[in-house]
């Protein structure tokens, strides 16, 4: 971890080291050296994920403000940990800060990151702070742990497994994509209930279901009326009603993305176990359909109409890598 | 790890998953899921470092070309692992690619990263590929391992310890900053020889020595004629000779940065052990001076003149965090 050459960057790095403080066990060393040190815990696997959020692609800095941008940069990574059934261990945060912004930007970003990190016991173990003549970029790497061999991957679903989502979908552009809660607690419960496959819905239900099916070499039949549709999906549909490409709330729930709910498959015999351990404080997950042994995705509408479900924005080619 | 919404990005991600292939043990799962999975090895600590390289700050894409940029992005992180005495375990690579460049840019970057990664047994375990309307940014997180409790930090040096550097310094802007070899083998040998503190020289000998001294709560006396000065430091001095701010080769060796040699402290009684295990293929490390119990840095010139050594670009304030 280096700090660049500018006094401004060095000042930010100094502030950060103070703000982060001493890390809890199993971290032996946090920021301030060439690398952070983690003592290994036998009996666990570690999982690693990394995501960048980029100005004008993933957020508009002027609209969202630095706090929600920093929060999102960590939250999307925590969502990936949740999708494996992992518990956070820590994270590393790299910033590319526009030179025409003051050090206040870094401070606001990092305060929001440290706040969410504290909420999920995911200490910031290091990072890299830079300024440049480019837009804001925040790159986070998150580390999680899982009892050895127990990670829930995308590829374990079998025909007949039930398909679930943990919450309402669609219209996240109206705000949810910036303030969603990563489903870490639910991810761990789903793992302990022996889910066969899991993914977080980052690119839209239709595309992420396609990924899960492709990895598992199965298909899916889902039921339109069982898909939980968010209020924002309805609002988005209304906003588009007068436009050139009117859309239904269902279309937004299927294709919008950045819901960061969990999509998972579970053998039917594990259903009772899942429901008995589901936290009372969380709405029950919605059963949206089943895995099938056809290598295709279908959606059934009320009154029995069945149509192919296309993964939005992607040419549907099963069987190809 | 997500892939964004564009078919272009999805195509790059597909290419990458093919190019990376199956990871060696102790990786259980590489790219293509929500997170990569690493089986823990008892008896080892893990170390984590992250560095971003940014267009027009750390490189000029037109001059360096994508291959050297990709190489540098990984190499600076490997240098941080070397500075702890660690052995690489793997890395994660995130790309922010300018939209006006074709997918060839990502391919050239990643080929160079995979080549260096292969050379140092540091498999690419995951990443995040994005396109945006900004300059090129490459963010790498590297993971290394060290026998438990044996990491060489910055803070262990004591008065009397000898100070070493592993190679010639200065003038890296002429090319060395793009094609240096991370000193991983030497870092491990230095650790095994019971060095008391170590840092890689990324921001210049004077500043990085200051960091080592500050962390160790000691000072240093170094000897100008013992500092190994690179040919490029001489060339840089010649290039500046006719300019407004002429410089000596020594000034470049002290202050230029991006040498990525190792600076370390070693108790004198461990010197024989270090020299007996030093690889015959590497030039012997230069003993540039000693740690002192004054909290200040001094440099002695031939004929006995002694002056304070200022960390370049940084207000010298010992005792302050």
How would you describe what is shown here?
2 copies of one chain form a homodimer. In chain A, 32% of the residues lie in helices and 26% in strands. Chain A is of the alpha+beta class and 321 residues long. The first copy, chain A, has a 7-stranded mixed β-sheet, with helices on both faces. In chain A, strands 3-6-4-5 form a 4-stranded mixed β-sheet. In chain A, strands 1-2 form a two-stranded antiparallel ribbon. The longest helix of chain A has 24 residues, at 61-84. Chain A is globular. Strand 3 of chain A pairs antiparallel with strand 2 of chain B.
Record keyword descriptors for this entry.
disordered C terminus; 2 domains; 60s Ribosomal Protein L30, Chain: A; Phosphoribosyl-aminoimidazole Synthetase, Chain A, domain 2; homodimer; four-stranded mixed β-sheet; disordered N terminus; alpha+beta; 13 strands
Topology diagram in text:
2 copies of one chain form a homodimer.
Chain A: H1 7-20, E1 27-29, E2 36-39, E3 44-54, H2 61-84, E4 87-98, H3 103-119, E5 124-132, E6 137-147, E7 162-165, H4 176-179, H5 184-192, E8 197-200, H6 205-216, E9 219-223, H7 231-240, H8 249-255, E10 262-266, H9 271-277, E11 286-292, E12 297-300, E13 306-308
Parallel strand pairs in A: 4-5, 9-12
Antiparallel strand pairs in A: 1-2, 3-6, 4-6, 7-10, 7-11, 8-10, 9-11, 12-13
Helix pairs in contact in A: 1-3, 2-3, 2-5, 7-8
């Amino acid at each position: 971890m280096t700090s660049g050459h500018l006094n401004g960057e060095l000042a930010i790095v100094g502030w950060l080291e103070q703000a982060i403080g001493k890390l809890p066990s199993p971290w032996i060393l946090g920021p301030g050296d060439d690398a952070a040190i983690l003592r290994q815990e036998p009996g666990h696997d570690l999982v690693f994920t990394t995501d960048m959020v980029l100005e004008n692609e993933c957020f508009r800095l002027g609209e969202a403000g630095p706090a929600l941008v920093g929060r999102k940069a960590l939250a999307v990574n925590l969502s990936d940990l949740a999708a494996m059934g992992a518990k956070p261990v820590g994270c590393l945060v790299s910033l590319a800060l526009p030179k025409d912004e003051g050090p206040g930007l870094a401070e606001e970003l990092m305060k929001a990151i440290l706040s969410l990190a504290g909420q999920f016991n995911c200490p910031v173990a290091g990072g890299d702070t830079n300024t440049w003549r480019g837009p804001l970029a925040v790159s986070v790497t998150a580390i999680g742990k899982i009892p050895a061999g127990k990670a829930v991957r995308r590829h374990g679903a079998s025909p007949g497994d039930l398909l679930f989502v943990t919450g309402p979908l669609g219209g996240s552009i109206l705000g949810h994509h910036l303030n969603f809660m990563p489903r870490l607690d639910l991810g761990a419960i789903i793992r302990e209930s022996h889910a066969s496959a899991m993914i977080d819905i980052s690119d839209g239900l239709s595309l992420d279901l396609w990924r899960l099916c492709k990895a598992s070499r199965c298909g899916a039949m889902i039921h339109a009326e069982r898909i939980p549709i968010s209020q924002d999906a309805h609002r988005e549909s209304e906003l588009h009603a007068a436009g050139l490409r009117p859309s239904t709330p269902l279309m937004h729930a299927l294709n919008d993305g950045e819901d960061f709910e969990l999509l998972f498959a579970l053998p039917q015999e594990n259903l009772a176990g899942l429901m008995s351990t589901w936290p009372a404080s969380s709405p029950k997950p919605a059963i949206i359909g089943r895995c099938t042994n056809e290598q295709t995705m279908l959606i059934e509408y009320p009154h029995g109409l069945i149509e192919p479900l296309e993964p939005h924005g992607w040419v549907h080619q099963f069987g190809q890598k």
